[in-house]
Amino acid sequence: MGDHDDLRKFITDLAVVHGRVVLSSGREADWYVDLRRVTLHHRAAPLIGRVMCDLTADWAYDAVGGLTLGADPVATAMLHASAGTDRPLDAFVVRKAGKAHGLQRRIEGPEAAGRRVLAVEDTSTTGGSVLTAVEALREAGAEVVGVAVIVDRGAGDAVRAAGLPYRAAYTLADLGLVA
Fold first, then answer.
1. What is the pTM of this model?
2. pLDDT tens digits for range 135-156
3. What are this entry's molecular-function GO terms (predicted)?
């Protein structure tokens, strides 16, 4: 099996949890995809970096990140996967709100202003979190080239309606789940 198939197995074996849950969007579901069980796993995280870099290889960007917390391990995995390649990536973290102390930055890491960046998320249902990150990045002077998620739960239309290309490594159908 290749990276894509190996990562799908990690997701279905470790991250798909069955039972009634309320999503961050407020919607209820009979299952939950807890991707932190995979994004923070020692064997799965490197796969995430390679799969997400492959998924977006034809987009021109040099930094990756999104709204903390879901995007952080995805961006870090991509940063590590790109190290030593001809296309190294920086990573950044978008805070939900600016800091009231220190440098009072909303975006942590290398400067985003003037850079072409990719906004990522582990999974997205409505697109709300990743679009919040996109707004902050644009306010900071970054050019957002697109949005990529590991698992799409339905956010594609909202992201595309905001004028951004959208890609997902896996759909719910890929994971044997029904929306």
1. 0.93
2. 999 999 999 999 999 999 999 9
3. orotate phosphoribosyltransferase activity
